Amino acid sequence: xxxxxxxxxxxxxxxxxxxxxxxxxxxxxxxxxxxxxxxxxxxxxxxxxxxxxxxxxxxxxxxxxxxxxxxxxxxxxxxxxxxxxxxxxxxxxxxxxxxxxxxxxxxxxxxxxxxxxxxxxxxxxxxxxxxxxxxxxxxxxxxxxxxxxxxxxxxxxxxxxxxxxxxxxxxxxxx
Length: 175
Description:
Radius of gyration: 17 Å
Number of strands: 8
Distance between the termini: 26 Å
Structural class: alpha+beta
Shape: globular
Largest sheet: 8 strands, antiparallel
């Protein structure tokens, strides 16, 4: 029995983490992710490729981590915002790496189609009240898409939007 305890803790921890994230996001007055996305896009640093909501364990506060790519300068900017105050608390720049190439392809497709990360996010979630865990732009097997991970009281939901067909993308679930 005791040998199974570490396995049970590893399996149940993500569920508890999602529930804690949901409770913090739903009970506090956090800035909506869409507001931060639009703020970042207005700065003109490039196109958002990733957006994550993470809890600072020491402060017990949510923070938004945003990755923005400028495809023509081959630069990635990482931004961290306090989700409660919407203040930028950290910023750094990196050169693009080989793992960014699929995301870069999706960004270039978005630019050709005049799409923005916030516009696709808004279209995908519609008028639903959502609590965003993460969102990322990617390209795989010739499909350019935005994938969202949302949290609610029942757990996590994954949605995706196909840039090529301009429609929601079915998500395969492995059992």
